[in-house]
Amino acid sequence: MAAQSAIFRLEGVTRRFGDVTALDGVTLDAGVNEYISLLGPSGSGKTTLLRVIAGFEAPDAGRVHFQGRDITALPAHERGIGFVFQNFALFPHLTVMKNVAFGLMHGKGAQVPQAEIDQRCRDMIEMVGLAGMEDRGVDQISGGQRQRVALARTLVMQPKLVLLDEPLGALDANLRARMRNELRAIRERLGVTFLHVTGSETEALAMGDRVVVLDRGRIIQIGTSEQVYDMPETPEVAHFMNRFNLFEGSLKGGVFEGPFGRVAAPRARPAKSDIYGVRYDRMRVLPADAAPQGPAIRAHFVANEYLGSSVMNFFETPDGRVIEMEHHLSLGAPDTYVPRQDYLLTWNPEQAIVFGREAH
Ligand SMILES: Nc1ncnc2c1ncn2[C@@H]1O[C@H](COP(=O)(O)OP(=O)(O)OP(=O)(O)O)[C@@H](O)[C@H]1O
């Protein structure tokens, strides 16, 4: 992305805590009005990245730019960047209205006339779906409503960039799914850039225009949801996406040898280990005595799980490896399998994703 269209840009940002390198030379930019999901395992540096952008944490090396300015040395309260915390950090003794108005009354915007503060707060409270609750205490509303107050309180300051640290983490599954849609809708209406940290790959893929995958302080992939989902660049991303059966083995001369035998793998990606991946929804189940066209592995059926739009079937190989097969319900009713019975699991090797040390 061209620097001039970026709303923020990190250049080679490193942050250490003693022996721990929480961020290791991170370079990242976000466009105006973009929704970026930041995904990574626990301890990968997600929160530290947000804190460096917000100004709560100074980088040991590297620069932070926002709206074309170098803000590396600018204090947090002068940056004009919004932050929504996982635990909401509301004032428990204040009403919804007073929580939302707090920044405008006491922050940099203290000059804003009272009538305008009232209007902006009421508009924002309506935008997040809390009209009528202005005078309730925030201890008298639900978790999802508190999350909306936290969002309204940040958005009412009209930031151009909002950092969200696991904003849906404290909500139950139903509410989380609903709030995902609302977050996207609210952001589209306001035209603000969101950088949303999540530990959930489902959430990252569902929300982000782009998904940034962080691992041990480094960005290991940036792409659209489709790119990250379909073409993970490393075995770590594939593992973290939780969408692939991954087999260890060895890649030699363009042939992968794994627990399923030998399969041609002409288009392997360079990696530090030899790994063969088949997406859950690319697995096919055949009777145990079938003669499969392609590679296959024998496994018995264990159980299945309905996920709403698909069914996940779990199989186990004789050596205890769990293989997952996802059936999208849009393709028709799922087949039923008999527990403990053997089946052959097969796939089209063209659709496999192969990583190998020799592929450099
Ligand atoms: N103030 C601190 N002092 C010492 N170490 C820290 C501090 N803050 C973060 N770290 C360390 O830096 C690394 C990155 O932490 P960070 O909180 O950014 O990860 P995260 O990806 O947000 O994790 P989680 O998903 O568990 O919140 C971790 O190893 C963490 O222990």
TrEMBL record:
One of its GO terms (molecular function) is ATP binding. It comes from the Bacteria. SMART domains: AAA. This is ABC transporter ATP-binding protein. Residues 8-241 form the ABC transporter domain. The keyword Transport applies. Gene3D superfamilies: P-loop containing nucleotide triphosphate hydrolases. Keywords: ATP-binding, Nucleotide-binding, Transport. It comes from Ruixingdingia sedimenti.
